[in-house]
Amino acid sequence: QGSTILQVRVATVGEEYILILADDHTEIARTEEVRNDFVANVSHELKTPVGAISLLSEALDDAAGDEEAVRRFAARMSKESARLTSLVQDIIELSRLQSTDMVDRAREVDLNQLVAEAVEANRLPAENRKTTVVVGGSVDGAVYGDAKMLTTAFRNLIDNAIRYSPEGSRVGIGLRSRDGMAQVSVTDQGPGINPEDQERIFERFYRIDSARSRHTGGTGLGLSIVKHVVSNHGGEVNLWSQPGQGSTFTVRLPEMESAEPSAEKQQQSD
Ligand code: ADP
């Protein structure tokens, strides 16, 4: 039925070892499993705000006449619908990224400028948390890619660095070129990430502290979007972190050959 998973068992009969391999549908089965997990997670994540909105609308109905209560319920409804909106946006973004390895609207991208724009886009949240974002260094060459996707990825990393750090802290962004790769690192003074969580935080919907992440407005999809964007561009994202010592996320993207006679620049069309 396509749902069998590869089983490898080693049985011992007397002195002999028998290796039993079952099923050749491994790849299909795994894809199916991943898809089922995704659908289950999406349903679960959507049910929470939808359920809250539904309850709140009933409460709102009952509260008619009590102006203070009406205002309170309405404010919570608006918060839940904002959450629903960002969830739906992230889910759409992620499915788009997963459905293709190709980078749409690819063109020559100046990462120095793009990162500066991603910082600017996070200016308000940074101000709200009294966080200073400092950018240092620069990359030499351009990268070939989708500016919109790359902006989303860097915005997510900077947004996390601000959200998971204590108020009044500092986020450092470093740019440099090395071995033909453009390297952008985002360092925060947040709580850091345990070694056992470091691989898993790139998984869809994985959150270390789901209550806190929800409270801070997280969807659990930000880093998996980052990972997909970066790998769709032939790059990689790495994490260095130690509990209590903050985290550094480093993105590496291949730089374009600078010797190339100016690649045709396409006008960006949104
Ligand atoms: P979310 O929307 O919950 O922030 P992400 O995919 O962006 O989802 O991140 C997954 C989880 O990884 C977060 O819930 C948080 O627990 C952890 N995390 C991400 N970035 C940081 C960071 N800079 N410092 C500490 N923890 C982080």
Automatic annotation (TrEMBL):
It comes from the Bacteria. Residues 41-257 form the Histidine kinase domain. GO terms for biological process: cellular response to phosphate starvation. It is an enzyme of class 2 (transferase). It is found in: Cell membrane. The keyword Cell division does not apply. Its main location: membrane. The keyword Cell cycle does not apply. One of its GO terms (molecular function) is phosphoprotein phosphatase activity. Its EC number is 2.7.13.3. Keywords: ATP-binding, Cell membrane, Kinase, Membrane, Nucleotide-binding, Phosphoprotein, Transferase, Two-component regulatory system. One of its GO terms (cellular component) is plasma membrane. It catalyses: ATP + protein L-histidine = ADP + protein N-phospho-L-histidine. This is Sensor-like histidine kinase SenX3. The chain holds residues 117 to 386 of 410 of the full protein.
